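Lab meeting, item 3. Inverse folding demo.
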């Protein structure tokens, strides 16, 4: 690894230490279904997002709710002296990437076979405080 690349990687690591995020890997639902839930909470305040996820009928919302609680806990760990109520937390970014695809075969008529793709995804949630952005 060259010096310039190593320095850039070290800077990225330092920035990542100050960001409160949580990620969930290899969730066995399609990315498209998970993005519907992620789009629902993007940019919302944390309490409002938790309420929306709790009462959503989508199966993916339970996993995203648990992930959001984890991101809040990570934020709490990085900002020990600040209360959550005073911080005015919101969901800064949510993104869903495609994970690995399991390829299976399903029997079809006349001796043929159709390929079934069982998709998975990776979800990342980043939480930030509106109070720290204004200062």
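The presenter then showed the designed sequence:
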């Amino acid at each position: 690894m060259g010096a310039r690349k190593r320095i850039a990687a070290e800077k990225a690591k330092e920035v990542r230490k100050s960001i409160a995020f949580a990620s969930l890997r290899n969730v066995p639902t399609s990315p498209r279904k998970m993005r519907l839930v992620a789009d629902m909470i993007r940019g919302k305040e944390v309490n409002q997002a938790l309420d929306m996820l709790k009462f959503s009928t989508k199966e993916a919302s339970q996993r995203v709710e648990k992930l959001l609680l984890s991101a809040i806990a990570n934020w709490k760990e990085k900002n020990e002296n600040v209360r959550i109520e005073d911080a005015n937390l919101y969901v800064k970014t949510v993104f869903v990437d495609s994970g690995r695809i399991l390829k299976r075969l399903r029997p079809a008529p006349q001796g043929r076979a159709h390929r079934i793709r069982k998709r998975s995804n990776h979800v990342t949630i980043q939480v930030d405080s509106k109070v720290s952005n204004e200062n």
